[in-house]
Amino acid sequence: MFSLRGDVNAGPVVRLEAMSSQPDAAFPGVTPPPASATLMVRTTRIDDLPQDPGALLRLLPAEGALAWVRRGDGLAAWGEVARIETSGAARFADAERAWATMRSRAIVRDEIGLPGTGPVAFGSFAFDESSSAGGTLVVPRVVVGRRGPVAWITTLSTVDTVPMLGPVPTLDALRGDDPAVTSPGTVTYSPGAVEDDDWTAAVEEAVARIRAGRLDKVVMARDVVARTEHPIDARWLLTRLADEYESCWTFCVDGMVGATPELLVRSEKGLVTSRVLAGTIRRTGGEDADLARAAALAHSSKDLEEHEYAVTSVAEALRPFCQSLNVPETPFVLHLPNVLHLASDVTGVLCTATESGHTPSSLSLAEALHPTAAVCGTPTAAANDLIREIEGLDRARYAGPVGWLGGDGDGEWGIALRSGALDPDDPHRIRLFAGCGVVAASEPGAELAETEAKLEPMRHALG
Ligand SMILES: C=C(O[C@H]1C=CC=C(C(=O)O)[C@@H]1O)C(=O)O
Question: Which ranges carry the Chorismate-utilising enzyme C-terminal domain (predicted)?
Fold first, then answer.
């Protein structure tokens, strides 16, 4: 199921021929978007984006901000030219087909040709197929991007008038007036769907099932509700996350805000990369003590086991698509301000279209990878069943893929961790989530403490 909504956008013009909306044989089952949904896209280099890492996020408006940034590079976007909404088990495939239809009809003038230039859609998808959170791709009206020394503006429209020629609008003209970023003020926290004691009891049950041989690993999650004095301004959260968690991918898509350290997949010109995390220890703040903790983590059999399941699940999911795959034998320790993680960067070269029949898009790869054992467990089906049975939580978009997709299908998808879901009906409310991998040697109290450590980035963001 998908539905598609387009808006009307004025601007300097080039008149285009009327588009047809005949059924598209390449995408059976997908109702072709109306002629008005034909995308017109123009990407132009800009020189006036300031050099500092916060420059992209500073452009964002208070409403409808879209972001995917890391160390000052990435994409900041706003406005909504089209929205693709999907649900159920086919949420990825339906979104993929609808986007493929749109981009196959796009009229693109891209003078740069880098990843993230040209047509772009931002997406966020539910962890579980039964969640009403479904999936969304948002096609923005304006994207500003940076990759190293190159910065650009992309303007998108669905009407037959678009600024394909003539002067490029300035950043200021595109942004217009927008209220200053505001602090959420005082924040109070309350338990989410499950009380702490019930959650540790559920972890105990999970450990018992694992010891009984029913599965090897399951990831158990919980949520916490934050209420703020002032309406939550996503830009406040994004700026604080990007400043403090610079090695993470800071994102904002359709109400999901966070800074994830885990890259589900990046697909770029035939190369795929996935940063797999599993196995965690809290930091103390002291440098020497943290180094000792890093060494302990690197040798912890419980954490290495947890990590091995996650790496195997990613390698197995990517292998059918790749002509070569590099899976590190031992993880490195990733240092974040709140925790240390065992991490592995899995990389591969995609099969060519002639070898595989077609080249999968980054979203298809994300679908194939989701859910990895870093957020679900091993074996996947047994872990998913146990999560549904005992977790007591609708994860919604938490732990689902979040990221962006380009006109050629390349893109970047993170796992929506260290994140929160803004409440569309209450601007003072955000649900924060965290989970942890449970194996036979897990201890419920320690797992609860680990979720607290993983909530730290969003608590910091709310400041
Ligand atoms: C499920 C989460 O973390 C995953 C990613 C890194 C380390 C994890 C762990 O050590 O349990 C989890 O698998 C979360 O942050 O909510």
Answer: 196-454
